[in-house]
């Protein structure tokens, strides 16, 4: 029957669910790399994950994924049943990650519309060899091996019943969350999983694949299953289980004659008026159960819960929804829905246009006509501004995602590279729940990967080198994140050998990067360390698989600067290095100060500005080389004139007729001189043409309320 239905509608659900499962799998595995072995809960979770992936891949007819996931399931089935000792833990971890990588690569092919032609034979052979070693070790110790985990591909939906003395009969009732999409497919996956333990299996509704309307029936009435099996109730619960799609699973063991009645569970004839209170209904059901318990054999345990079908729903008055009374007392679970990212981006763009349109309306020159009574308009405008602000906050919160998944990927990089290089390295994550705009995360994944890889490869010494230098602690890479003043700080710290200032200076000198007019001793450590971010600059004498080719750090800086961020490098020789990334929380809408210099408008993010100051000429200090400083309350600040910096034709020369803005950038304070301030405004960040990006000090542009274009300033570029 598998050839008779179309799987196109199931593909998105398959990819979404398996991506979530693989992320959870990798997180479980990497968390226990240093534990020496997997605990029982982890073994059960990994077994169940592979069992689910195997089942769904079988439905979709992805045979190679089914085969490799089933083989890894075999391994964890053996671990779960036999509890062997002396399991080579790190080798097992590598096998699990290898399978996860294979499945991920095949799923990427599916997304790209390519054929899933990956050959899992080598991976399966490796798992067979690993499992054989485990079994032989168990056989030598005299332990009884568990029965084989045999997977038989179901040929049809109906299984011929063969009852034995060990057979059990179950009535199963599954309730899905109301927001579950394609509930019929989830129901089919449950049936597919149960077939491996079933002697007889019936379910209602019957046609759950070709009849799309069955999904709505399942959500409204639940999914009912009649199961004959030799498995006990606990084993059945493990196979089905409550998840993000299944709200509740009720399993009731019954007699053979009750099983043969099929889905006509209403033979008790008990009626329940759903207008009654929950307490009244529960009392009535308890009385029925107590009477039934007296009549049953002593060996049969009475059930304390209501079984689905043990009651008949009485019609209610029009206008009142039918709700099972036993569900009334339960807390409602938060509803979630998956949305295509492109739709979120489109919504964000529309809100940006709404903000611009709002500015155009509220700053319309027609409103400045003398004598207009605008009290009602101003009230409406205030309400509009509030709604648009709330709308922005909601969409921004929807786009904000934690850095946990990105950090977990770095954990995998540390594990892989350290194993191949033979280094004993510990990985620590701090602040992984810090939330950042999804677009920001997409831009920083590659830079973080380069920084972490460099820290492991040539930041941290080999085990022998650490021992020779007297370092007793393990090599350690710490990835941390925090938010501060509308920015996100992400740090990659290692306790390795640190950067060699002298070696970097020699390399910079040989490449002609040093300023001849500037003494080498006057270069600060931060200035020297910035040389490693230049294209083609590398002090590695040996080229390895991971670094030493002079590429990577310049890509890091370019990607970070493309989103308005910056990279700061700190290092202590012999102690380690810290790479600090400072990036914006979001790329979409910011609060900014609009200012003018000459005939041009500029915008600066509000968080960058510490103070506005009016100064007079007596406070200015003019150096012979053209540099200017201003004394404010006993402190001396360098001055950047915006008009002079961009070589504009018309701008204010006298400081007494303009305004000084005190900015703090990377711990340094500088004064920016502009002609005049216009006001504060919500700014929708727009990209600017590539030829304008070549001008340092500009990071984007925006449209103002009067329709004119304003350039967004990048303070870091202004002081270079």
Query: Low-confidence parts, pLDDT < 50 over ≥5 residues?
Result: 1-7, 138-143, 152-161, 266-276, 295-334
Rg on CA atoms, Å: 34 Å
Shape: flat
Return the structural class: alpha+beta
Lateral strand order in the biggest sheet = 16-20-21-19-18-17
Count of helix runs: 22
- Strand fraction: 15-25%
| Count of distinct strands | 24
| Biggest sheet overview | 6 strands, mixed
pLDDT average, as an integer? 77
Helix share, percent: 40-55%
Description:
With 720 residues, this protein is α+β, with helices and mostly antiparallel strands. The protein contains 22 helices and 24 strands. The strands form six sheets. It has a six-stranded mixed sheet. A hairpin with a 2-residue loop joins strand 20 (659-665) and strand 21 (668-674). The protein is flat. 28% of the residues are buried. The model is unreliable at 1-7, 138-143, 152-161, 266-276 and 295-334 (pLDDT under 50).
List keywords for this structure.
five-stranded mixed sheet, flat, disordered N terminus, six-stranded mixed sheet, single chain, alpha+beta, 720 residues
Q: What layout of secondary structure does this protein have?
A:
Layout: H1 8-31, H2 40-59, H3 63-82, H4 89-111, H5 121-140, E1 168-176, H6 183-194, E2 198-204, H7 214-221, E3 223-229, H8 233-240, E4 246-254, H9 256-260, E5 271-272, H10 278-295, E6 312-313, H11 325-328, H12 341-362, H13 375-399, E7 400-402, H14 404-421, E8 425-430, E9 435-437, H15 438-459, H16 463-468, E10 475-484, E11 487-494, H17 501-510, H18 525-529, H19 553-561, E12 566-572, E13 576-584, E14 589-597, E15 600-605, E16 609-613, E17 620-622, E18 628-632, E19 635-641, H20 642-645, E20 659-665, E21 668-674, E22 676-684, H21 690-693, E23 698-703, E24 709-713, H22 715-718
Parallel strand pairs: 5-6, 8-10, 15-24, 19-21
Antiparallel strand pairs: 1-3, 1-4, 2-3, 7-9, 10-11, 11-13, 12-13, 14-15, 14-22, 16-20, 17-18, 18-19, 20-21, 23-24
């Amino acid at each position: 029957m598998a050839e008779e239905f179309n799987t196109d509608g199931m593909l998105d659900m398959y990819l979404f669910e398996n991506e979530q499962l693989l992320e959870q799998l990798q997180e479980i595995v990497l968390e226990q790399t240093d534990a020496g072995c997997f605990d029982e809960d982890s073994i059960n979770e990994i077994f169940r994950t592979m069992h689910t992936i195997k089942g769904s891949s079988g439905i979709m007819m992805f045979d190679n994924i089914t085969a490799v996931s089933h083989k890894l399931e075999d391994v964890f089935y053996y671990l779960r049943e036999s509890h062997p000792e002396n399991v080579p833990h790190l080798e097992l971890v590598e096998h699990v990650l290898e399978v996860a990588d294979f499945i991920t690569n095949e799923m990427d092919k599916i997304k790209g519309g390519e054929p899933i032609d990956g050959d899992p034979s080598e991976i399966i052979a490796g798992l067979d060899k690993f499992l054989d070693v485990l079994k032989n070790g168990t056989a030598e110790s005299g332990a009884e091996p568990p029965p084989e985990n045999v997977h038989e591909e179901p040929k049809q939906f109906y299984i011929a019943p063969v009852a034995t003395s060990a057979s059990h009969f179950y009535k199963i009732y599954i309730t899905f969350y109301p927001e579950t999409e394609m509930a019929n497919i989830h129901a089919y996956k449950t049936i597919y999983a149960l077939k491996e333990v079933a002697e007889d299996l019936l379910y209602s509704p019957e046609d759950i694949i070709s009849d799309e309307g069955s999904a709505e029936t399942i959500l409204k009435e639940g999914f009912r299953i009649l199961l004959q099996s030799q498995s006990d109730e606990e084993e059945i619960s493990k196979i089905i289980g409550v998840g993000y799609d299944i709200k509740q699973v009720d399993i009731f063991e019954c007699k053979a004659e009750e099983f043969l009645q099929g889905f006509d569970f209403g033979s008790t004839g008990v009626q329940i008026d759903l207008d009654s209170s929950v307490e009244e209904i529960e009392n009535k059901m308890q009385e029925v159960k107590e009477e039934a318990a007296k009549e049953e054999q002593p060996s049969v345990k009475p059930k304390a819960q209501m079984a689905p079908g043990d009651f008949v729903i009485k019609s209610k008055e029009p206008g009142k929804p039918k709700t099972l009374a036993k569900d009334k007392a339960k807390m409602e679970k938060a509803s979630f829905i998956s949305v295509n990212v492109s739709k979120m981006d489109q919504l964000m763009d529309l809100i940006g246009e709404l903000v611009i349109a709002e500015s155009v309306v509220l700053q319309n020159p027609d409103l400045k006509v003398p004598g207009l009574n605008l009290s009602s308009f101003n009230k409406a405008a205030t309400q509009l501004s509030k709604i648009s602000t709330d709308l922005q906050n909601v969409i921004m919160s929807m786009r904000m995602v934690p850095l946990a998944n990105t950090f977990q990927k770095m954990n995998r990089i540390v594990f892989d590279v350290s194993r191949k290089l033979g280094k004993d390295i510990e990985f620590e994550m701090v602040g992984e729940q810090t939330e950042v705009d999804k677009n920001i995360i997409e831009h920083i994944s590659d830079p973080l990967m380069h920084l972490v890889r460099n820290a492991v490869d040539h930041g941290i010494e080999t085990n022998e080198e650490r021992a020779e230098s007297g370092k007793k602690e393990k090599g350690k890479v710490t990835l941390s994140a925090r938010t501060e003043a509308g920015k996100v700080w992400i740090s990659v710290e290692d306790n390795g050998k640190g950067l060699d200032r002298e070696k970097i200076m020699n390399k910079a000198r040989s490449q002609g990067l040093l300023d001849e007019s500037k003494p080498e001793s006057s270069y600060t450590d931060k200035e020297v360390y910035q040389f490693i971010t230049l294209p083609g600059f590398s002090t590695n004498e040996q080229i390895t698989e991971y670094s030493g080719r002079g590429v990577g750090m310049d890509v890091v800086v370019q990607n970070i600067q493309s989103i308005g961020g910056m990279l700061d490098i700190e290092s202590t020789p012999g102690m380690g290095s810290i790479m600090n990334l400072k990036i914006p929380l979001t790329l979409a809408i910011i609060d900014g100060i609009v200012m003018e210099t000459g005939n041009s408008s500029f915008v600066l993010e509000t968080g960058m500005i510490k103070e506005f100051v009016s100064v007079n000429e007596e406070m200015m200090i003019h150096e012979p080389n053209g540099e200017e400083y201003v004394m404010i309350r006993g402190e001396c600040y360098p001055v950047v004139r915006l008009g002079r910096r961009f070589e504009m034709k018309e701008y204010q020369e006298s400081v007494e007729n303009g305004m000084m803005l005190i900015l703090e950038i990377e711990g340094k304070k500088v004064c920016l001189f502009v002609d005049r301030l216009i006001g504060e405004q919500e700014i929708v960040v727009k990209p600017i043409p590539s030829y304008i990006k070549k001008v340092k000090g500009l990071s984007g542009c925006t449209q103002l309320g009067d329709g004119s274009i304003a350039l967004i300033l990048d303070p870091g570029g202004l002081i270079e």
